[in-house]
Specification:
Blueprint: H1 6-43, E1 47-52, E2 57-74, E3 82-97, H2 100-105, E4 116-129, E5 132-135, E6 139-147, E7 159-163, H3 165-168
Antiparallel strand pairs: 1-2, 2-3, 3-4, 4-5, 4-6, 6-7
């Protein structure tokens, strides 16, 4: 019986270990990106009171619980060995008031006297290329609006928009902290 070439066995073990190290490194980097994204949304003010020129009224805006989900997958590509996504869901509710102090006193919760609310869902897609996470021209953004239905708990059918990787890197984008610089 022939024995295995020790050099070949050592090389295969080293390659397997290097591949596992690269995968854990890529996943760790992506988890850091997700943690930054979650911290950004956690730091956003829960409520804001402002005068709306368009409505000619004071409004109180509340950002209701935000969900940030993610996943990383291995691909069969040697150039882009991993793909990943971050999905952000945010509900923003607005309530009109006759004055600034009245707006500050308002309670804003889903289904509790909402004047206007919107649910925003952003799907940010990335690939791991040249040792770093790169946004892909495949941002999916969905928004569902429930305008004018007091106490409504249902949202209208969402509409979708697609954006480019350049759009994803706009510092004014609502998900800017979730995209690597």
């Amino acid at each position: 019986m022939k024995s295995a070439n020790p050099l070949l066995v050592a090389t295969l073990l080293a390659l397997g270990g290097a591949q596992a190290w690269a995968a854990s490194d890529a996943v760790a980097e992506f988890k850091t990106l997700v943690a930054n994204c979650k911290a950004f949304y956690a730091a956003k003010p829960a409520t804001e009171v402002q005068f709306s020129e368009g409505l000619k009224s004071w409004i109180k805006t509340a950002r209701l619980p935000i969900e940030v989900r993610y996943d990383v997958k291995k691909t069969d590509s040697l150039i882009r060995p991993f793909s990943a996504f971050i999905e952000i869901t945010e509900v923003v509710a607005h309530v009109k008031a006759p004055g600034e102090e009245a707006a500050r006193q308002l309670k804003v919760t889903a289904g509790d006297g909402l004047w206007d609310s919107s649910r925003f869902m952003y799907m940010l897609n990335f690939v791991y290329e040249d040792g770093r996470w790169v946004p892909v021209d495949d941002l999916r953004s969905r928004a569902a609006r429930d305008k004018g239905a007091k106490g409504a708990k249902q949202f209208a059918k969402p509409f979708s928009m697609a954006s480019s990787a350049a759009d994803m890197q706009d510092p004014k984008a609502p998900y800017a902290a979730c995209v690597p610089k």
